[in-house]
Amino acid sequence: MADWVTVSGDNHGMPFMVVDKINAQIFVFGKDGRIRGAAPVLLGLARGDDIAPTKGERMSARLRPEERITPAGRFVGVAGVDTAGAKVLWVDYDDDIALHPVITTRPWEHRLDRLQTPSAADNRISFGCINVAEKFFNNVVKPTFGSGDGVIYVLPETHPVRAVFPRYYQVRGSFA
Q: Could you tell me the pLDDT band of residue 86, with boundaries at 50, 70 and 90?
């Protein structure tokens, strides 16, 4: 995916990241396509690739477990702040999906511990946001994306890649 992004110019000269939901990993790349870092992530509790559009009405506390999905697709991320004033990278502002440091206010969820395990099986816990270690957010995400925009590619886990990223299969001006 990263090679395709760089060769095709799909990132329009912006930094980008690829989120692999199946393996619960994130890969961050500079504008030039060079990798800046990789790390484990926490993702939405429920498996799936689609969320119902809510236009800002996606109240986390009201989401049923099966609605806590990290959506797949191509997003233009924007640096910003959440309702508590914390810095985030908005993946989908209208649907309240962001990439941010791990929330530690619910110690019983063991979110930091989940990032440390070798298996992706326990990395499903969020309301749909993408959580990374604070050190990774501060040392890789923020310096790479800065206060500007960047492209976020969230790979699907239930849909075929072709259905979510049809341009990935484009060959010499036509779709394969």
A: confident
Nearest CA among 44, 38, 12, 16 for reference residue 26: 38
Q: 69 near 51, Cβ under 8 Å? A: yes
Query: What would the pLDDT profile of 39-79 be if each residue is shown by its tens digit?
Result: 999 999 999 999 876 655 655 667 888 889 999 999 999 99
Predicted TM-score (pTM) of the model is 0.91
- Cα distance between residue 176 and residue 167, in whole Å: 9
What are the extents of the domains in the chain? 2-52+63-171
Q: Which residues pair with 101 in a beta bridge?
A: 132
The count of other CB atoms within 10 Å of the CB of residue 143 is 13
CATH topology for the 2-52+63-171 domain:
L,D-transpeptidase catalytic domain-like (2.40.440)
